[in-house]
Amino acid sequence: MATRVRTTGAYGAVFGVFLRQKLAAKPFTSWAMARRSAISFMPATSPPPFCSAAENERTGRIWNLGAGNPQTVNRLVELIGGQVTYIPRRPGEPNATWADISRITSELDWRPLVSFEDGVSRMMAEIEVWKDAPLWDSESIAKATKVWFDYVR
User: Residue 133, SS3?
Assistant: First the structure.
């Protein structure tokens, strides 16, 4: 099964956006201090956590999924390799997303098994998956986030 991430909308996932930019030999678009909690689900290593959630008596619970160790976008750039064009941070954009996974680890005994570096390596091995994804650049990002900027200021 190929790796997948969202690449459309005003907030496309950084992995797919960057991989498409890499395929086009374009610079990665980011703001300098961004940190994100990324996670990989690899079927060969363990069942996804929603299987455990569906098979237990705790109904109506909410569990956060994430790696529990946010990585800088600059670290992702380092692993993928390429140049960066820094763009303005959107108003209201969090400096970091950091999923608190303490509940899912204690209640479902679930932990992420794929390191950030290994997940990036696996995605790079399948980089062609993103050849038809939208190609973001500073102008298209500004256009897609215009409403965001207009209402959050």
Answer: coil
The amino acid that residue 47 corresponds to is P
pTM for the full predicted model:
0.76
- Tokens representing 52 are 């455990």
Instruction: Supply the DSSP symbol for 90.
Output: P
- The rounded distance, in Å, linking the Cα atoms of 21 and 16 is 9
% the chain with pLDDT above 70: 82
3-state helix, strand, coil in the chain (%, to 5): 40, 5, 55
CA–CA separation, 2 vs 74, rounded Å?
A: 24
Residue 45, pLDDT > 50, answer no
Q: Where do the domains of the chain lie, and which CATH numbers do they carry?
A: 14-152 (3.90.25.10)
Distance CA 139, CA 120 (A): 26
Strand partners, 96: 35
Closest CA to 66 of 96, 26, 23: 96
Positive or negative: CA dihedral 79, 24, 5, 136: positive
Residue that is written with structure tokens 């956590």 in the block: 49
